[in-house]
Specification:
Two copies of one chain form a homodimer.
Chain A (H helix, E strand, L loop, with lengths): L3 H8 L3 H9 L6 H14 L5 H8 L4 E6 L5 H16 L3 E6 L4 H12 L5 E4 L14 E4 L9 E4 L1 H14 L5 E5 L9 H13 L6 E3 L7 H11 L5 E4 L2 H13 L9 E6 L12 E4 L2 H16 L7 E4 L2 E3 L6
Parallel strand pairs in A: 1-2, 1-3, 3-4, 4-5, 5-11, 6-7, 6-8, 8-9, 9-10
Antiparallel strand pairs in A: 10-12
Helix pairs in contact in A: 1-2, 1-3, 5-11, 7-8, 9-10
Chain A binds a DNA duplex (16 and 16 nucleotides) through α2 and α4.
DNA sequence: CTGAAAGCGCTTACAG
DNA sequence: CTGAAAGCGCTTACAG
C-alpha cells in the first residue's frame, strides 16, 4: 500500500503539502494539487482512515440504534446507513435494543465514554436522555429541539393511498395503524386518511392503537370485528397489511376483489411467500444518505435543517386494484 | 479518555511496560501487571483500537460476504458476526453480493488492495478465486482445502426430524430442498432423509433442485404435483417450509392435521404473521463465535481445524405434531 | 503557498 | 522484567 509519504516523495513535495492536497484542507497551488493528485492516482493511494482518525481524535465510530434489526425496515435502513457511513471512513455499530441487551450495554458504555462520534437514533420507544453534546439524528421521530430527523412525505403519500382506494371503487375505506408512544411523523399517515375521508363526507373508520411487533394479527382481528363491512384498508405498516391479507383470506374474503389492501413501507422482499403487496415505498437509500449528511454536519458543528423530507410513492402489487 | 500514558504515569511505570501488561504481549512481573491492571480499571482505560491497528499494520477490517442480507438467516448471522468482530477491535463491512453491486465493487477493490484482514465468505454461489494469502472462513460451504468452515450437525438434526415425522404418524414423508451449486454441508439434510427412509424400508420421495430466493412457491407446487399423497414434509429451509404451508393451505389441507411440516434454520421471527413453524434451529450466535475464532487463528497464522460443528435442535411450533 | 516538525495512542525491537 | 525510543500514517499549527 502506498502511503502519503510515497506520494509526497514521488511528487517532489513535503508530506504536509501532500496531505493538504489530498484532504482538501488548507490552501494549495492548483498546479501542485494537480501533480499530487496524479501521483496519488498512479500509486493507487488510499488514505488510511485509522491514522486520520487517530490524529483527528475521532473514534471513527457511529452508533445506529434500532428497535430490532430483524424487522425488514430496520435491516434495510442499517445496510444503507452502513454504506454511507463506511464511505466516509467511519465504521458503524448497530445496536438492536430489543434483541441484544449485552451489546446495548457495551454501547451505552461507549456512549458514556464519549467513544462514538454520533448516533443515528431510530427508535419507536422512549429512552434515557443522552449526552446533549453528542450529535444525534433520527428517523421520523421528534426526539427534541436539537435533534434533526429524516422522514418520508407521509401525509401526501397517505392521501394518495386513500384517494386511490376510493377511486378504485372501495365503498368502505378503513385505516389501521399503531399509536407511537412518542411524537413521530408516522401520525401523518392516519391523519391524511381522516382528512381525505372528511373531505369526501365519508365516515371515518379508524383503529389506532399501540401494539408490539408480532401482535399484528390480533390487531387486525379487532379491526375486522369493529369494521366488518370494510372493503378497502389502508394499513400503517406492511406488517399490518400482511396480517390483514392473512386474516381476510382466512375469513374467506378475496383479495383484492372483496377487500383491497395498501400498506406502508415497501420493504417486504420476494422471498416472502405471498402475493405482492400494494404499498407505499419509502426511499430508504435516500433517507440514509440524508440522515448521514445531517449527522456529519452536526459532527462538524454546522447548522442543519430540523427536518428533511424524502418522497415516497405507491408501488403496485396484487392486493389492490 | 484515559490513554496508556495516563495509566503508565499513574502506575509509576514506563509506557512500554503498561502496554505489555495491558495487551498481554511480552513478559511482565505479576506484581507490576496487577498494579497496572488496577490503575487501568480505576481510570476506565479502554485501548484505542485505531492506534493499535495502525501500529500493527492491520486494517482492522473484516469482510462478511453473503448472498443477500435481506434473508433472515444472513441478517441474523451478520448481527452476531458483527458482535464478535467488534468486540475484538475490528470493524466489519458486509457485502450483500446480490443486492448491492456498488458496495461489492468497493469491497473487491479493498480486497485487491489488501485492505481487509480477513473474509467470512458465506455464500451459495461460485465466486472468483481469492488471494490465497488472505485468511478466509466459511459457513457450510467447502470452498477449498485451505478454508475452514463452521456448520451445524445437519445430518443428525435432519435424521431427528424425519424420525419424528414418522413417529408422529406421518405415512408418506417427503423431502424438498435446494441443490447447492457448490459442495456444501447442507446436502446432509436430504441425505439424512434418504438414509432414514431406507432404513425403515420406506419409499424415498425427494425433490432436490436448484432455485433462487423467491421461487419457493413454484418449487413447492412442483413438489405437490409429484407427491400429492404427502402428509409429512421435511423442508430444507424455513422459506420452503413457509411456502409449503401456504400452498398446502391454499389446496385446502389442514396443518398439521393433514400435513405436517418441519423446516430448517429457525430464523423466522414473530412478526411473521403465521402459525409458528416447527423447525430445526441453528445456533447462529455460536456459529458466529466459532467462525470468528477460526478466522482470528488464521489471521494470526495459527493452525485450525478444517471443520467446526455446532449442534442444532428441533424447536416446536404449530406445523407439526 | 509550502516544508519541517510535533504528535495522535499504541507496540515492539533494543538495551540493560 | 523494564524503560527509552522509534515508528505506524496521517494532520496541523508554526514559520517562512
Amino acid at each position: 500500500m502506498a502511503t502519503i509519504k510515497d506520494v509526497a516523495r514521488e511528487a517532489g513535495v513535503g508530506v504536509g503539502t501532500a496531505s493538504r492536497a489530498l484532504s482538501g484542507n488548507g490552501s494549495i497551488h492548483p498546479d501542485t494539487k494537480k501533480k499530487i493528485d496524479e501521483v496519488a492516482e498512479k500509486l493507487g493511494f488510499v488514505p488510511n482512515q485509522q491514522a486520520r482518525n487517530l490524529k483527528k481524535q475521532s473514534s471513527g465510530c457511529i452508533a445506529l440504534i434500532v428497535p430490532t434489526i430483524f424487522h425488514p425496515f430496520f435491516a434495510k435502513a442499517a445496510l444503507y446507513f452502513e454504506n454511507e457511513i463506511y464511505a466516509l471512513g467511519y465504521r458503524m455499530v448497530v445496536v438492536s435494543s430489543q434483541d441484544n441487551r449485552a451489546k446495548e450495554k457495551v454501547m451505552l458504555n461507549m456512549i458514556k465514554q464519549q467513544r462514538v462520534d454520533g448516533i443515528i437514533f431510530v427508535t419507536h420507544y422512549d429512552h434515557d436522555s443522552l449526552d446533549p453534546s453528542l450529535p444525534v439524528v433520527s428517523i421520523d421521530r421528534h426526539l427534541g429541539a436539537g435533534i434533526p430527523y429524516v422522514t418520508s412525505n407521509n401525509y401526501e403519500a397517505s392521501r394518495a393511498v386513500v384517494e386511490r382506494l376510493l377511486a378504485k371503487g372501495a365503498k368502505n375505506v378503513a385505516c389501521v395503524c399503531g399509536d407511537p408512544v412518542v411524537e413521530s411523523e408516522t401520525i401523518y399517515r392516519y391523519k391524511a386518511y381522516v382528512d381525505v375521508m372528511q373531505e369526501h363526507g365519508l365516515p371515518v373508520r379508524l383503529l389506532k392503537k399501540a401494539f408490539d411487533h408480532g401482535q399484528e394479527p390480533e390487531m387486525i382481528r379487532e379491526f375486522f370485528e369493529k369494521f366488518p363491512e370494510t372493503d378497502g384498508i389502508f394499513a400503517g405498516t406492511d406488517m399490518l397489511a400482511l396480517a390483514a391479507y392473512h386474516v381476510a383470506t382466512q375469513m374467506g374474503r378475496k383479495i383484492p376483489e372483496d377487500v383491497q389492501i395498501i400498506g406502508f413501507d415497501g420493504v417486504l422482499d420476494k422471498w416472502q411467500t405471498l402475493p405482492s403487496l400494494t404499498t407505499v415505498q419509502q426511499n430508504i437509500p435516500e433517507m440514509a444518505k440524508a440522515g448521514v449528511e445531517l449527522l456529519m454536519k452536526r459532527i462538524r458543528g454546522e447548522e442543519t435543517p430540523a427536518r428533511v423530507e424524502i418522497p415516497a410513492c405507491i408501488i403496485d402489487g396484487d392486493t389492490a386494484k
